[in-house]
Amino acid sequence: MNLPPGCPPRCRGCAHRGLTEEASSAQKEGWIRTALAPWEDRIAPLRSPDPQRRLGYRERVRLATRWDGKGWRFGMLLRDELVPLEDCPLHAPRVRAALNLFRPLPPPPAFPLAFVTLTGAQATLVVKASHPLEPPALDFSGLEAAGVEGLWLHHHPTAGRRIFGRGAWCLLWGIPESRNPLGLLYGPASFQQALPELYALSLDQAEAHLAPGPGDGTGDLYCGDGASLARWRARGSEALGVEISGSALDRAARNAPGCILLQGTCGQRAPQIRGWLASFPQGMRRAYLNPPRTGLETEVAAMLTDCPAGRLAYLSCAARTLRRDLELLEAGGYEVVSLTPYDFFPRTDHVETLALLEGP
Ligand SMILES: C[S@@+](CC[C@H](N)C(=O)[O-])C[C@H]1O[C@@H](n2cnc3c(N)ncnc32)[C@H](O)[C@@H]1O
């Protein structure tokens, strides 16, 4: 296999790295046509980024760590062995530059570094420690040149399966939040879609379908930092955002001022979401859904059937749960208008799908 420089043969991260762009796109389209077969006639071609964006696009990484006796290594764990990924060709240049700077951090056990994460310009050193540690000796001068704007120390005593915990966050250097290419604030643990230009196209498509405007009510479930909420508000629609993470909601309040925001799981909040949507006539209700891989909670699918929206857009990162949810929504009277796959993660086998539906 002809791998680009820095791509370790043992890494399992990119299932499509041995494929041409055409072959990878064909496999992704084939998977979506199989997984979403009941709506085969409504599946659009895969939307892909420009060819030069198929490498160097990953701005959000979570990497395991190992001390090799000379310095820290960062990569992926295969069983108990670390496959170093400092030079992974998918990493954005800033990720590679930052990882290089973190290599000479102090050794364990004094500095029990478990993970390093980067979310755009916000970097975090996750230490397996319950008590606040002395900040590590680090030459901060290189961070700015690397494109890092904030460096955090996060204490997580049981760091392992979960990267972030409830322990303290301490800003070691820089500013606590940055702005993404769309101008929106994000923090060190924010969810951020890869390839912002392609993500913006998916939002354009959702916005054209929902056509939210004054007098409408748009419920944005699993709203994160409020990237989509900001769109609905800019069109003059009333908007409600629901999100489990308090820090994401705090940013959503600033990214999309003037929205009603509810913290909690969408399942727990289903009665309040229903009450709010019901205050608009059905034809003026809109819903935008962007759940994690597990898809919609049963209470959410039931609520959307019980109090239907006139138009609905659903951006999904897992075609299996999307199929289950589309079947539930169809049974509730919705009609699937179109399904558009988006290649947000070139060279991997991931593919996201934007489903557009009309209400009963
Ligand atoms: C795929 S991300 C989408 C975020 C946002 N729409 C965006 O594009 O930036 C899913 C979001 O759902 C949140 N989340 C996960 N489970 C949730 C739940 N049960 N209820 C509400 N929010 C949840 C996560 O914190 C995350 O922000």
UniProtKB/TrEMBL annotation:
<dbReference type="InterPro" id="IPR030390">
    <property type="entry name" value="MeTrfase_TrmA_AS"/>
</dbReference>
<dbReference type="Pfam" id="PF05958">
    <property type="entry name" value="tRNA_U5-meth_tr"/>
</dbReference>
<keyword id="KW-0808">Transferase</keyword>
<dbReference type="GO" id="GO:0070041">
    <property type="term" value="F:rRNA (uridine-C5-)-methyltransferase activity"/>
</dbReference>
<feature type="active site" description="Nucleophile">
    <location>
        <position position="317"/>
    </location>
</feature>
<comment type="similarity">
    <text>Belongs to the class I-like SAM-binding methyltransferase superfamily. RNA M5U methyltransferase family.</text>
</comment>
<feature type="binding site">
    <location>
        <position position="290"/>
    </location>
    <ligand>
        <name>S-adenosyl-L-methionine</name>
    </ligand>
</feature>
<dbReference type="InterPro" id="IPR010280">
    <property type="entry name" value="U5_MeTrfase_fam"/>
</dbReference>
<keyword id="KW-0949">S-adenosyl-L-methionine</keyword>
<feature type="active site">
    <location>
        <position position="317"/>
    </location>
</feature>
<dbReference type="GO" id="GO:0070475">
    <property type="term" value="P:rRNA base methylation"/>
</dbReference>
<keyword id="KW-0489">Methyltransferase</keyword>
<dbReference type="InterPro" id="IPR029063">
    <property type="entry name" value="SAM-dependent_MTases_sf"/>
</dbReference>
<protein>
    <submittedName>
        <fullName>(Uracil-5)-methyltransferase</fullName>
    </submittedName>
</protein>
<feature type="binding site">
    <location>
        <position position="222"/>
    </location>
    <ligand>
        <name>S-adenosyl-L-methionine</name>
    </ligand>
</feature>
<feature type="binding site">
    <location>
        <position position="193"/>
    </location>
    <ligand>
        <name>S-adenosyl-L-methionine</name>
    </ligand>
</feature>
<feature type="binding site">
    <location>
        <position position="243"/>
    </location>
    <ligand>
        <name>S-adenosyl-L-methionine</name>
    </ligand>
</feature>
